[in-house]
């Protein structure tokens, strides 16, 4: 029997989980209460993407052998994968107490504590991993993830660079390093990290996906297509590659791609996001082909999948929005100018023209475009979640945290931009923290915004309202209320810029932007398509085209599709639509 177990473990190590499963079934048939075979059976199920099926095997192995350390570790890891961190934490505490030198258990405990939202406990666990093995990358990668979650981006990047230095051949370290480098405006280094990952493991799908995204951000669409096609050679039904390739393909190329997407859809897991990704791809293909019925059908199905996975809580969103507004009353003034370069917050609804506006500003030599910065939201989150006052001390701490999170800026920079659209919710904090902060508010017909969001697959759960038309109307109404409130509290400090005016008169809009910042206008600001560098959002391809007005009023062709959204808009908040 020991030889069979050794053979099964070798199969696990080589990734041959079907062989491991077959051997485990054979072993359990001979001995139904053998904990070792139970553990291998659980590993095999998890390895084949079925963690729910693997869980009871680990539980039974522990029932048969309570001191079976490896089975307990596997159980904890599976619980974490299933989103059951509260159940996993007790197992991991037991393991680290029994064997304080178990770095794998400490690493799992760090991840579990992150999932539970206990940053201090996670930091203790991850520091223990590093102390046990300071020459290995794993601890630094984990700590970087934790630091990134709390907004310490510079420290996170330092840990990622340390991990890559310690283990130059670690593919995961190179992948993890790529996006943070892009976020601090080091596009060449970000691309190089992704290229190293691919050269280290040409068959590694996540590495090629990351490289493809860096190429898209830098405007190298044809090279990005090659990477997505390489992914599909490795994994023909890979949903992310199919979706992203469909977005950048020509109509003719997508006509060839369509059968592959349909084939993948037949075999996809009903419970995961891949089904939604494939429907987004098919919607894009149908739209290019002029198939309006197919366009509407696939968008509806794609968004339904995502809405089920990331439901929107309208009540909680309303309470949060009202609490944020209640913090600031008319007469609130900003603190004196901060030290150094001043921020320009370009905000509004997503897909309202914030990327285009940032590109126009970034064409000025005194302005450094930094994209969608996550630091302000993460710096303010503990204060908002805890209901803590934004007093002088908190404002000073916020300014310090913002300054610490900035990348090195070129000599002569007077302003940097942050185009996180959802910063409209935080405008009170941003304006109160610095009297020299500028806010540029992009306004766009909400019906065109809704159509754009409905056909876009946006990353993360922060924009989960975009997957439900009624939820989208609710959130848009909250947005309109909040912007009216910020105008009343901070009169004269917010520049409203209509997207429709911007695309109709680019030079005129760019002159208004320069005046708002107190800068002399330069002609380059009127040609944002020539100024766009790396773009880390869905607008990457659009920004490299001359400004056009083709999207203005486009919602009218899809009014039936958008009917639930249109019915949900509050006419008192949107009088211009009447």
Task: Describe what you observe in this structure.
Among the domains are: 171-234, Alpha Horseshoe (Serine Threonine Protein Phosphatase 5, Tetratricopeptide repeat); 236-309, no CATH class; 321-573, Rossmann fold. With 578 residues, it is mainly alpha-helical. It has helices spanning 2-13, 17-30, 35-47, 51-64, 69-81, 85-98, 103-116, 119-132, 137-149, 153-166, 171-183, 187-200, 205-217, 221-234, 239-248, 251-266, 274-288, 292-309, 314-326, 354-362, 375-386, 392-405, 427-433, 446-454, 469-489, 499-504, 506-517, 528-531, 563-568, and strands at 342-348, 367-369, 415-418, 438-443, 494-498. The longest helix has 21 residues, at 469-489. Helix 9 (137-149) runs antiparallel to helix 10 (153-166) and helix 15 packs parallel to helix 17. It is globular, with a radius of gyration of 26 Å. It has 29 helices and five strands. It has a five-stranded parallel beta sheet, sandwiched between helices. It holds the Pfam family TPR_8. This is Tetratricopeptide repeat protein. Keywords: Transferase. One of its GO terms (molecular function) is protein-tyrosine sulfotransferase activity.
């Amino acid at each position: 029997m020991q030889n069979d177990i050794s053979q099964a473990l070798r199969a696990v190590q080589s990734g041959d989980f079907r062989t491991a499963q077959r051997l485990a079934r054979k072993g359990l048939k001979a001995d139904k209460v053998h904990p070792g075979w139970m553990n291998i059976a659980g590993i095999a199920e998890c390895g084949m993407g079925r963690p729910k099926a693997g869980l009871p095997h680990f539980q039974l192995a522990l029932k048969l052998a309570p001191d079976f350390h490896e089975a307990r570790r596997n159980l904890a890891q599976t619980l974490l994968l299933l989103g059951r961190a509260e159940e996993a934490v007790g197992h991991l505490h037991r393991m680290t107490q029994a064997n304080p030198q178990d770095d794998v258990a400490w690493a799992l405990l760090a991840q579990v504590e992150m999932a539970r939202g206990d940053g201090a406990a996670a930091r203790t666990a991850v520091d223990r991993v590093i102390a046990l093995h300071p020459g290995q990358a794993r601890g630094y990668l984990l700590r970087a993830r934790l630091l990134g979650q709390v907004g310490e981006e510079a420290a996170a990047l330092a840990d990622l660079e340390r991990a890559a230095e310690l283990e130059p051949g670690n593919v995961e370290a190179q992948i993890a390093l790529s996006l943070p480098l892009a976020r601090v405006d080091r596009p060449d280094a970000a691309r190089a990290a992704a290229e190293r990952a691919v050269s280290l493991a040409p068959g590694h799908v996540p590495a090629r996906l990351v490289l493809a995204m860096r190429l898209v951000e830098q405007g190298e669409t044809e090279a990005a297509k090659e990477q997505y096609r390489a992914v599909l050679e490795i994994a023909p039904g890979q949903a992310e590659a199919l979706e992203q390739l469909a977005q950048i393909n020509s109509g003719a190329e997508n006509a060839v791609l369509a059968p592959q997407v349909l084939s993948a859809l037949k075999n996809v897991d009903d419970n995961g996001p891949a089904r939604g990704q494939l429907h987004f791809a098919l919607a894009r293909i149908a739209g290019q082909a002029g198939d309006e019925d197919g366009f509407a059908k696939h968008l509806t199905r794609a968004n339904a999948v995502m809405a089920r996975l990331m439901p929107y809580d309208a009540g909680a969103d309303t309470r949060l929005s009202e609490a944020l507004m209640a913090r600031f009353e008319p007469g609130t003034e900003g603190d004196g100018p901060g030290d150094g370069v001043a921020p320009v917050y370009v905000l509004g609804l997503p897909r309202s023209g914030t990327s285009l506006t940032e590109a126009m500003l970034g064409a000025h030599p005194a302005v450094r475009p930094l994209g969608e910065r996550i630091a302000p939201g993460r710096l303010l989150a503990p204060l908002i979640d805890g209901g803590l006052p934004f007093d002088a001390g908190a404002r000073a701490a916020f300014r310090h945290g913002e300054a610490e999170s900035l990348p090195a800026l070129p000599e002569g920079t007077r302003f940097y931009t942050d185009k996180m659209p959802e910063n409209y919710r935080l405008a009170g904090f941003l304006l109160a923290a610095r009297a020299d902060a500028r806010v540029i508010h992009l306004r766009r017909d909400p019906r065109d915004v809704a159509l754009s969001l409905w056909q876009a697959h946006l990353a993360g759960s922060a924009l989960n309202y975009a997957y439900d038309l009624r939820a989208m109307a609710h959130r848009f109404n909250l947005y309109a209320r909040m912007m009216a409130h910020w105008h009343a509290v901070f009169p004269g400090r917010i520049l409203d810029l209509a997207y429709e005016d911007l695309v109709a008169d680019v030079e005129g809009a760019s002159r208004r932007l320069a005046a708002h910042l107190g800068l002399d206008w330069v002609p380059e600001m009127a040609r944002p398509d020539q100024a766009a560098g790396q773009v880390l959002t869905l607008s990457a391809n659009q920004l490299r085209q001359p400004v056009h007005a083709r999207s203005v009023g486009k919602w009218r062709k899809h009014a039936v599709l958008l009917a639930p959204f249109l019915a949900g808009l509050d006419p008192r908040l949107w009088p211009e639509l009447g």
